[in-house]
Each structure stands twice: as structure tokens, then as C-alpha cells.
């Protein structure tokens, strides 16, 4: 089995496309690529609006408290809906789930520590450097390096060309969250291949919730039990964890990690939109240009993947 992070040319898209509609040589490639892309984009919209809601919740529950609510509620929902089997899995399966859970806990904890110190849009901008680095390291095609470079230019432009005036700890937390995000991509793909449906995700979310619960209780205590806080926390969990993680896990079964990682460069644009609509944050001209660069890079990655999938599907049509 090829790990997602080391095999961007995974045969998964080509293998699933012919089976969906073997009578059409061009249709399979489009469905095999644009379907997963739509899942990724929908997950990105959900997670960024959930992030904006989380920022508004932090004065009530604290950064660690918000993460705890998010993970615990998400774990409860996923475990209840999926009801994953606990038997019949190998030691390697369980190892993958545990590492995936640790990765999710670290990614969430580090990111919310970042947005507690620096603006949401800039935190997401720096966090997305992790997936971008993964796309460069995982790519075996020169064109993907071009799209990654264009997206990287947009990311730095969105950050105003530098981050020297920002809180140092906030920057460090955001960059560390980006590293965990890259690891999340790898282990989400591995978990999706080892477990049916979203079973592995539900188990990993349970691991993440158990790991983070003591931290949230230590910081926020009984504040977490206030009804309004619980309700808002449940909203954050659904928007930021349940929906996007499920959609991304399903997408990674059919989408190479390199293309997925470049699509993640859309996150700053989505965060800026959520910040404007939910938090009243406006965009400057420079930020708008940066968003355009990031979107152009993502569109290029999508077109590259679509053109690649169609020819691979033709021999079995």
C-alpha cells in the first residue's frame, strides 16, 4: 500500500474511474477528478466558517476549551452515526487510527492557540504552508511545482509580504499547525484505505477527544457546561470537524495527495470570506490579488488532475 504522502501518482483515481462508467472513455476521468475536488471545496467552506464561529466563542471558553468542545462533540456524533466495529482490525490498522487521532488533536490545538494570538486569515495563511510543502515533496510532475509556487506566492502576498510584526508565539503555533495539517493529509488517506466509510475517522476523532479533554477541562472547567457555550461548541464541531473531515477523507480515496494539498491553498481565501461575513473583516486590494493567485493555482491543479485522469481511464473503457 502506497502512503499518500509518498505516492502522489497513486493509481486510485484511474482505478475507480473506469468502474463508475466503463462505457464512456471521457466521463470517468471527469467524475473521478471533479467529484473529489467538489468534496474538498465543500469541506473547506465548512471548516473556515466553523473557524470564524470558534473565534467568537473563545472569550467564553478559551482556546483549549473550544478545541475540547469541538473534538468531544464531533467524536460523539461520528461514533454514534458510524458505529465502527472494534474487532477484526490489525495492529497496523489501530496504529494508523491512533496516529491519525494524535495528529488531529495536535493540529486543532496548535491552530486555535495561533488564532488566539494572531488574526484568523493570517493564521490560515501560514498554516496552509504545510500542505503546500507536502505538494512539492510529493509531486513527481514539474507542472505541479509551478502551481505550488504560484500558490505560495499568493500565500505570502496575502500575509502582506512578511510576518515580522505578528506575535512570535502565534506565528510558531500556526506554522506548527501547518506541519500537522500535512501529516493529517497523509494519515487521513491511510485511514480511509484501511477502514470502510468514515469508521476510521470516527475512531480517530475519539482518540483525539480523549487526549485533549484534560487540557480543556484544566483551562475552562465548568465554563464548558454553560448551555450557550455548549450550543456554539456543537456548531463549531459540526462545521469544523464532522463535515469537512468526512468529506476530505472520502475525497482522499480518489484524489492524489499532491493535488489535494494544492487545493488546500484555497483555505486563506475561504477564511477571508468567512471573516468578512461572520467577523466583519474586510479585504485590502493586496489581499484580493493574493486570493486571485491562490485560486489560479488551485484551478491549475484541478485541470492538471482532470487531464491526467481521463487518458488513464481510456484503455479499460
Write the layout of secondary structure elements.
Layout: H1 12-20, H2 27-61, H3 63-82, H4 91-115, H5 120-127, H6 129-138, H7 142-158, H8 168-194, H9 199-220, H10 227-252, H11 257-263, H12 267-279, H13 285-313
Helix pairs in contact: 1-2, 1-13, 2-3, 2-10, 2-12, 2-13, 3-4, 3-9, 3-10, 4-8, 4-9, 5-8, 5-12, 6-7, 6-8, 6-11, 7-13, 8-10
Any descriptors?
mainly alpha, disordered C terminus, disordered N terminus, 317 residues
Report on this model:
The chain is mostly helical. Helices cover 78% and strands 0% of the residues. Mean pLDDT is 76; it is low at 1-33 and 310-317. The longest helix is centred in the first third of the chain and has 35 residues, at 27-61. The protein has helices at residues 12-20, 27-61, 63-82, 91-115, 120-127, 129-138, 142-158, 168-194, 199-220, 227-252, 257-263, 267-279, 285-313. The protein starts with 11 loop residues before the first helix and ends with a helix. Helix 4 (91-115) packs antiparallel against helix 8 and helix 4 crosses helix 9 (199-220).
Amino acid at each position: 500500500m502506497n502512503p499518500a504522502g509518498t505516492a502522489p501518482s497513486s493509481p486510485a483515481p484511474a482505478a475507480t474511474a473506469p468502474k463508475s462508467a466503463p462505457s464512456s472513455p471521457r466521463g470517468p476521468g471527469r467524475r473521478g477528478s471533479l467529484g473529489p475536488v467538489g468534496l474538498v471545496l465543500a469541506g473547506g467552506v465548512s471548516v473556515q466558517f466553523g473557524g470564524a464561529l470558534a473565534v467568537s466563542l473563545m472569550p467564553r471558553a478559551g482556546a483549549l476549551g473550544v478545541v475540547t468542545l469541538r473534538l468531544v462533540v464531533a467524536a460523539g456524533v461520528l461514533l454514534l452515526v458510524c458505529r465502527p466495529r472494534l474487532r477484526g482490525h490489525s495492529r497496523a490498522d489501530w496504529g494508523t487510527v491512533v496516529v491519525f487521532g494524535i495528529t488531529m488533536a495536535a493540529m486543532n490545538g496548535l491552530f486555535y492557540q495561533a488564532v488566539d494570538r494572531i488574526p484568523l486569515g493570517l493564521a490560515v495563511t501560514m498554516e496552509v504552508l504545510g500542505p503546500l510543502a507536502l505538494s512539492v515533496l510529493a509531486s513527481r510532475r514539474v507542472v505541479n511545482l509551478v502551481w505550488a509556487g504560484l500558490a505560495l506566492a499568493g500565500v505570502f502576498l496575502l500575509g502582506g509580504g512578511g510576518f515580522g510584526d505578528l506575535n512570535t508565539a502565534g506565528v510558531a503555533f500556526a506554522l506548527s499547525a501547518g506541519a500537522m495539517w500535512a501529516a493529517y493529509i497523509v494519515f487521513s488517506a491511510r485511514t480511509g484505505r484501511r477502514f470502510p466509510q468514515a469508521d476510521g475517522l470516527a475512531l480517530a476523532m475519539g482518540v483525539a477527544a480523549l487526549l485533549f479533554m484534560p487540557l480543556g477541562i484544566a483551562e475552562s472547567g465548568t465554563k464548558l457546561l454553560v448551555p450557550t457555550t455548549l450550543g456554539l461548541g456543537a456548531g463549531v464541531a459540526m462545521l469544523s470537524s464532522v463535515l469537512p473531515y468526512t468529506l476530505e477523507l472520502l475525497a482522499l480515496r480518489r484524489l492524489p495527495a499532491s493535488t489535494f494539498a494544492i487545493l488546500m491553498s484555497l483555505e486563506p481565501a475561504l477564511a477571508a470570506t468567512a471573516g468578512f461575513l461572520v467577523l466583519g473583516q474586510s479585504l485590502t486590494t493586496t489581499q484580493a490579488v493574493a486570493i486571485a493567485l491562490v485560486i489560479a493555482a488551485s484551478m491549475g491543479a484541478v485541470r492538471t488532475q482532470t487531464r491526467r485522469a481521463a487518458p488513464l481511464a481510456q484503455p479499460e473503457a
